[in-house]
C-alpha cells in the first residue's frame, strides 16, 4: 500500500534515485526554524497554523479569513520555504523538526498563549503531533490534516524505522543531489498535480514547491520518514481531529486509507476523524467551506471521541 501524496508538494518515491550532474547550490542558513504572522488581538480562541514542508503560511489564508474576529491566528512558515533561509543545524540541534517544536514551545510561552489549538498540514501535522507528545501542557486541541504518525509505513510498505532508514536515505539523496532542472521537472509533474483539484491551485502549489530550498526539503523528509510517533500517542489528552483525504490517491481505496488512518492513530486518547470525499491533499484549497466547518467544530467541541 502506498499513498505518497501524504507528504505534500515534495513527495518523491524512494526508487527515484537518479542523480543529476550537480548538487543544489548552497543557500543562506538561519538558526530560526520558522517565521510567523499574527492576525487579531483579543479573541476568544488562539489558533496556530503550521503548513507542510514546501508550502508558505499563505496556504492557510482561507481559514484565517474565516476565523477573523473569532480567533487570534498565528501562521507559521517553516525555514527553507517561500524563499526563506534554510535552517542551520549545530552540535546541540541536529533535528529540524524537533528544533521547530522547541522554538514553538518558547514562542507560546513568550507570547503568553494559553493552550492554543494547533492545526498542521502534512509534515506540519507531524510537527504538531510530536509537539503535543513532547509539550502536552502547551496544547489545547489538535487538527492534523492528511498526515500519519509513521509516514514510512505507507511510503515503503514497511513497519520499522530500522528498515525505513536505507530507503529514506535513498530518497534524501535523490532529492538533494539531483540537478535543479530535474527537481523542477518533478515539482511540475503528476505527483504534485494529484494533490489539488484545480489547474489554478496546481500552479500555486508548483510555485510554492519551486520557492522551497531543495536541500532542506531532502533533509526534513528524511527526518519524517525515519520517525515513528505512534508509541507516544498516549502522552497527551488534547482533543484531536484527524482530517483524511483520498481523492487523487493511487494504489489504495477509500476504505484502505480510512483503515490505515484509524489504525495508526489508535493510540490517541481523544480523537475523531473526518474524511473529505472530494478534496485532495491540499484539502483547504479544494474544499474550503468543508474544511472551515471542521475547524469550527474543533474549536467548539470539547469532547472529541472515537
UniProtKB/TrEMBL annotation:
Residues 47-293 form the AB hydrolase-1 domain. Residues 1-24 form the signal peptide. GO terms for cellular component: membrane. InterPro entries: AB_hydrolase_1, AB_hydrolase_fold, AB_hydrolase_sf. Keywords: Signal. It comes from the Bacteria. This is Pimeloyl-ACP methyl ester carboxylesterase. It comes from Nitrospirillum amazonense. The lineage of its organism: Bacteria, Pseudomonadati, Pseudomonadota, Alphaproteobacteria, Rhodospirillales.
